[in-house]
Design a protein that fits this description.
GO molecular function: cytochrome-b5 reductase activity, acting on NAD(P)H; heme binding; metal ion binding
Keywords: Heme, Iron, Metal-binding, Oxidoreductase
Organism: Sinocyclocheilus anshuiensis
Largest sheet: 7 strands, antiparallel
Shape: elongated
Strand order of the largest sheet: 20-19-23-16-17-22-21
Strand content: 25-35%
CATH topology of the largest domain: Rossmann fold
CATH superfamily of the largest domain: Nucleotide-binding domain of ferredoxin-NADP reductase (FNR) module
Radius of gyration: 29 Å
GO cellular component, one term: endoplasmic reticulum
CATH architecture of the largest domain: 3-Layer(aba) Sandwich
Protein name: Cytochrome b5 reductase 4
Distance between the termini: 23 Å
Length: 536
């Protein structure tokens, strides 16, 4: 599914193209099949002004060469070295490394030239008229080097069909493409063609210098829209989504597997790329929209006297990486009425250990302030561990585009308006080296209300690019920090604008705080493009 505003999409596409030049990152999603034959059928559903990557009605089609060979016809396999799996090969092909030795140039290959490339370290082969340099693939080939060398320097189409006819080789070897096999000219046909060429004009011979040479075929415009590939083995089908733009470490994928429906959504700025399949057989995998997912409350952790972090476990068939700045919806039924409220997920800690990133997607952590008179939050406070909650989304207007070329990131947060800032801080310090300074001004009533105060202080002491200032409206006499409400003087000292800098001011909090903060920031000559308001 491609959800877009035409003007915004063109704007974002240009900027994301520049990011693609710095490195194309592919999101790789693997689904493990419990059967040997028959996997995906039906077709991809894309709600858009145009359809992207629409496969055939059946995936793979009945009788397709890409379906697994019948039992007993499988080939011998060798043990691959560590780091040489199918996914490792996919990563290598998307790393930008020149796998052809021709620096991206496509050539026409004669039969004589093909024969010259028949060694272990210089191995070309031809499949259906296209020539590939498979030297780099030697150590990744499941059948081993010896089997692959049988195809060295020759047209290996028949050999390939005997052993690998179900493999989607065009996608697997796309970055290894050398060019097209040259077609041998037929002497008789060539002589006839030359004879019938237009060599006269008005009955007079035309000089060869005046004969117009055919114009070269223009190269097609580069397509920067997302696409997907798939690769099937005897036991798995691997779906690879090429986003063609930089992805933050927090991820952007939402994967749902429920019964026979598999849905994958990539949240890419203002665009959403949705893949939808109906499966022909039951599959296994840890991977709704099915709109709301029934999650289980796993734990509650007290953060302050009135704020908790709720850990929700997604269903076994769901995987959700909520992009930075986006929120989800909690829904529950109270007295026969559905109550829905947005919450911005946080990480388990302000700066979680790097190994936790691999586990992201199966749990959600929501930082929630318990209000005694709040209908939903008072219900959550009394909700026992093991209870179910419906989670929908994610949604939100924040995109990575607003951080493009930003050097100074400022955040104004009040109370639980801190929640979108928490992951934004991590993003700025870990992923965005262009940001030279990240500053948070955090407004609360009392010192005991400050969320993750010790973690913020610890981060401030360790990271020279990060600063935090606390402002209390009802401080005790022993408080040594800032006091009062947000005002112009306070912000003028906080919002520095160094020479040759690009600033972004993010604001989140109660409605009254947000409106006043934005008004004051505008008075300091910050443009609309330099202000982002988190609303949920």
């Amino acid at each position: 599914m491609l959800k877009e505003d035409d003007e915004d999409f063109e704007e974002e596409d240009e900027e994301e193209n520049r990011a693609a030049n710095r490195g194309k990152i592919s999101a790789v999603l693997s689904v493990i099949s419990s059967v040997v034959s028959g996997f995906l059928r039906n077709w991809i559903c894309l709600k858009a002004s145009e359809m992207l990557n629409v496969p055939s009605q059946s995936f793979p089609a009945a009788g397709s060469q890409q379906r697994v060979a019948p039992t007993g016809q499988s080939r011998n396999k060798v043990a691959l070295k560590p780091g040489h799996s199918l996914l490792d090969w996919i990563r290598l092909t998307k790393s930008g490394r020149d796998l052809t030795g021709l620096r991206g140039q496509l050539i026409e290959v004669t039969e004589e030239e093909l024969k010259k490339h028949s060694t272990r370290n210089d191995c070309w082969t031809c499949i259906r008229g296209m020539v590939y340099n498979v030297s780099a693939y030697m150590d990744f080939h499941p059948g081993g080097e010896e089997e692959l060398m049988r195809a060295a320097g020759i047209d290996s189409t028949d050999l390939f069909d005997q052993v690998h006819r179900w493999v989607n080789y065009e996608s697997m070897l796309k970055e290894c493409l050398v060019g097209r096999m040259a077609v041998k000219p037929n002497p008789a046909l060539q002589a006839q063609t030359e004879k019938t060429e237009s060599t006269h004009m008005n009955g007079l011979p035309v000089s060869s210098r005046l004969r117009q040479e055919p114009l070269p075929t223009p190269l097609p415009a580069k397509d920067h829209r997302p696409r997907y590939d798939w690769f099937q083995t005897d036991g798995t089908v691997n779906i690879v989504i090429h986003t063609k733009r930089k992805i933050p470490s927090a991820g952007c994928a939402v994967v749902d597997l429920q019964d026979d429906i598999l849905q994958v959504e990539m949240l890419l700025g203002k665009m959403s790329y949705l893949l939808y399949w109906r499966l022909s057989s039951e599959v296994q995998g840890r991977v709704d929209e099915l709109f709301y997912r029934e999650c289980v409350l796993v734990s509650k952790t007290d953060i302050t006297h009135d704020t908790q972090v709720l850990r929700l476990q997604l269903p076994s068939g769901s995987h959700m990486q909520v992009p930075v700045g986006r929120h989800v919806y909690l829904k529950t039924s109270l007295q026969g009425t559905d109550v829905v409220k947005p919450y911005t997920p946080v990480d388990q800690k302000l700066i979680p250990p790097s190994q936790c990133s691999a586990e992201m997607g199966s749990d959600l952590h929501l930082m929630i302030k318990i209000c005694p008179d709040g209908l939903l939050t008072s219900h959550l406070a009394n909700l026992p561990i093991g209870s179910s909650l419906s989670v929908g989304g994610p949604e939100g207007s924040f995109t990575m585009r607003v951080l493009r070329d930003v050097t100074h990131l400022y955040m104004l947060a009040a109370g639980t308006g801190f929640t979108p800032m928490a992951r934004l801080i991590r993003l700025a310090l870990q992923d965005l080296t262009s940001i030279r300074k990240t500053k948070l001004m955090f407004f609360n009533r009392q010192e005991r209300d400050i969320l993750w105060c010790s973690q913020l202080d610890e981060l401030c002491s360790k990271e020279e690019r990060f600063e935090v200032e606390y402002v209390l409206s009802e401080p005790t006499d022993s408080w040594k920090g800032r006091r009062g409400q947000i005002d112009a003087c306070m912000l003028q000292n906080f919002l520095e604008r160094p020479e040759d800098s690009k600033c972004l001011v993010c604001v989140c909090g109660p409605t009254g705080f947000t409106e006043l903060a934005v008004q004051l920031v505008r008075q300091l000559d910050f443009s609309e493009e330099e202000i982002h308001i988190f609303q949920g």
